[in-house]
Design a protein that fits this description.
Distance between the termini: 64 Å
Strand order of the largest sheet: 3-5-7-8
Structural class: alpha+beta
Number of helices: 7
Strand content: 5-15%
Radius of gyration: 21 Å
Largest sheet: 4 strands, antiparallel
Low-confidence stretches: 1-37
Order of helices and strands: HHEEHHHEEEEHEEH
Mean pLDDT: 86
Number of domains: 1
């Protein structure tokens, strides 16, 4: 029997009417008045970005048995490649990963062309900075999930993945998404929107920030979360209870 061309395929009227109904629902939703604050949609998008990155972290863990290192260093011990490039194959950016060259630094002659590409997944929609920068960071320190070049597995988080920070956000960082630079433990324990120095921050109108935890959950934490609680959430094995100041 001759294989029919696409134009000659029989029409399934049930599917056709279903498509019409779905299209109608879509346009109805599009023109509905938005309820709630103006920043609800960008906040949700920011949360989804963190969830997707956290999921990629877990997919990486499924393959390699650990989370990625914060960075890969060169012969002199300087950060050369970021965890973000290591996650690209786990976020449907395989072709971009294949283009990346590990025999030169992130800002080498070839890789700097990739660094100029904006990746919306690494940016909070509230941010006003250059489009090729990132707002999402790991916290680097000997007691965090990212001690540096060492990779940490879930079994190395005795405090529990639901109590231990995986990713934080920072507004207007100016840091390229491909650059192997993140937030230090000392910067992170300053809390949200610190009065001096760089640290966890956001442009969310209520002053809160969204934090991804090692179990993949994302929580919106209040800016009055005590410093001691930040320490407990950042350290993976201190054995101390955690109290969340949620908003």
């Amino acid at each position: 029997m001759e294989t029919p061309s696409p134009k000659r395929l029989p029409v399934n009227h049930t599917i056709a009417w279903g498509a019409v109904v779905l299209l109608g629902v879509f346009f109805f939703w599009m023109f509905l008045p938005r309820v709630g604050s103006r920043d609800a949609a960008p906040r949700t998008e920011c949360k989804n970005h963190l969830k997707q990155i956290a999921l990629a972290m877990h997919n990486y863990h499924d393959v390699y048995g650990c989370f990625p290192p914060a960075y890969i260093q060169d012969r002199n011990g300087r950060p050369m490649h970021s965890w973000r490039v290591l996650l690209l194959p786990f976020m449907e950016f395989g072709p971009l990963y294949d283009e990346y060259r590990f025999d030169e630094p992130w800002n080498g002659p070839h890789n700097r062309k990739l660094a100029a590409l904006p990746l919306a997944l690494f940016r909070c929609p509230f941010d006003n900075g250059p489009t090729a920068t990132t707002n999402y960071f790991v916290v680097v320190g000997p007691k965090t999930v990212f001690p540096g070049t060492k990779s940490i597995a879930i079994k190395d988080i005795p405090d529990g993945t639901a109590n231990t920070i995986l990713l934080v956000e920072a507004a207007d960082s100016g840091i390229n998404w491909l650059e192997p630079r993140d937030m230090s433990y000392e910067e992170a324990v300053r809390g949200i929107n610190p009065k001096s120095g760089w640290g966890i921050s956001s442009r969310h109108k209520d002053g809160s920030a969204q934090i991804a935890f090692a179990d993949g959950s994302v929580r919106t934490l209040d800016d009055d979360t005590p410093i001691e609680q930040w320490r407990r959430m950042l350290e993976r094995d201190d054995g101390l209870p955690v109290s969340f100041h949620l908003r």
